[in-house]
Amino acid sequence: MIDSMLQDPEYLKARANNEWYFWPQAGLTPPSWEELLENVAWACMNPLNSSKVLKNFSFVSYRADRIPLVKEILKRVAQEQLSDSFSAHLFFSMSTESQNYGRHEDDSDLWYWQMYGRTHWTIEHPDGSKVERMMEPGDWLYCPRHYYHTAVPQGARASLSFAQHYNIPRKPNKAF
Question: DSSP class of residue 64?
Answer without folding.
Answer: G
